[in-house]
Amino acid sequence: MTDLASSVRLTTGTKIYLYVSLTIIAAIVLIPLLTTALGGFKTLGDLRTNPFGLPVEWHFENYTGILFGDRYWRQMMNSLIIAVLTVFLTLSVSAMAAFAFAHVKFFGSNFLLNYFLIGLMFPAATAILPLFIRIRDLGLLNTYWGVVLPQVAFGLGMSILLFRNYFRNLPEELFQAAFVDGCGYIRFFWHISLPLSRPIIATVSIISFVGSWNSYILPLIMLNSDSIYPWPLGMMVYSGEFGTEWELVLAFITLTILPTIIVFFLAQKHIIAGLTAGAVKS
Amino acid sequence: MASVELHNIHKAYGALTVIHDVSLSIDDGEFIALVGPSGCGKSTLLRMIAGLEEITDGDVSIGGQVVNAMTPRERNIAMVFQSYALYPHMTVAENMGFNLKLSGETKPVIEQRVNEAARMLDLTKLLDRKPAQLSGGQRQRVAMGRAIVRNPAVFLFDEPLSNLDAKLRVQMRSEIKALHQKVQTTSIYVTHDQIEAMTLADRIVVMNRAGSSSRARRSSSTASRPISSLPALSVRRP
Hints:
The complex is a heterodimer of chains A (282) and B (238).
Chain A lengths: L1 H6 L4 H28 L4 H6 L11 H8 L1 H34 L5 H10 L9 H10 L6 H26 L2 H10 L3 H12 L1 H16 L3 H6 L8 H11 L4 H23 L14
Helix pairs in contact in A: 2-14, 4-14, 5-8, 5-11, 8-11, 11-14, 13-14
Chain B lengths: L3 E10 L2 E11 L4 E5 L6 H9 L6 E6 L2 E2 L5 H4 L1 E4 L11 H11 L4 H14 L15 H13 L5 E5 L7 H18 L2 E5 L3 H7 L2 E4 L10 E2 H4 L6 H6 L4
Parallel strand pairs in B: 3-8, 3-9, 6-7, 7-8
Antiparallel strand pairs in B: 1-2, 1-4, 4-5, 9-10
Helix pairs in contact in B: 3-4, 3-5, 4-5
């Protein structure tokens, strides 16, 4: 945007068009979020008569009630454990697999890669019955791993694709220089590829974290005790319990979105261009 | 330091042969330049000596030992790349000490060797910088520093100065010459710049487009009394 603005003089019409369209898009994203967050501060009556405006009276007790109860924290912790395990496993497995696909020539590598990529075509819902039977046979029903392992498996296709493309674009000379310096594949992966892959690690982490955080169908099938429910399932139970008290449901939703936003902003600063600047003459 | 022998080297990519039967003997401590037109296979030949490219046929010996099946590390060579190939996430000191770290040297030894090389190349003040904060000439000096710290048997240079501007190139040329005189390590230098070849090298090997070499002569006599039409055509005043 700044490049465009500085290099091309925009006419007033174009500027108005840009601002209006961007404002509309921002509004589509922000208004539901704000409505939800503000709804949490209202009373039920206020919410019914004035769903979009500011609260007539600010009621913090909706939020504090949830924050001081143990249900919210337990569900957050469950979601966090599942998400962190998913991100960690997805990152380590897909980075290693992608490195092999990017740098090692071996018989059947293309076939194997395509096999992984086929995974992109199937959402978890299509495989829910065989998945359930498999997880049951492994004795992982109603455990964190019963949710984590399928999530990692379904996330591998996309993550391998992203990592592989990134690794292939690292300068070839870096690999040769490292090889001359005495690196084998493993050391090159550990000492050179990974430290240079922060942007793609952040990207894959965000995708996999948000996917896991919002995952509903897998936990619904695999988990059946309230104590290890992640927040989307907890949400379901909560809204079943407080179905008529919308202000509480809205406050609960707002609080569950917060960690995703925090993780996004933490990871975002690592997605910076030009990390390989100075490696080779371009 | 070691001598390098090439015996009937061939390189083929499938049916396409790019290097035909090159034999060359390089003495211990000698500075050899490989010159020739683009695409004649001089870089490929250098990469075969380095161990970055497989040898289709023939033998490469370093210090009397056939090294065909060895990794670059085992061959004890160091290479300076045209594009510098510095590790962007490491400081200058880490870049230079990386190969020593990999070979398990202790921190004080690494520090001492890196400081020594940095002093030799006038890099002492830049040791804490990252490659992105250096100029082209400084990066090239770091790439050379990375090569000297490990005290290799052979230096390989793959057109190391072709990314620098003319003035810097002249300066770096004399630095490379001085460096060679100081460390006296066998060096093989690929370039398409004949002036560079003639000022730096003890002998020049001229390769033609078909990827075979003409015999090498002392660099001072190559231009004035060429042994065949190929060096005469390749090495002349521009």
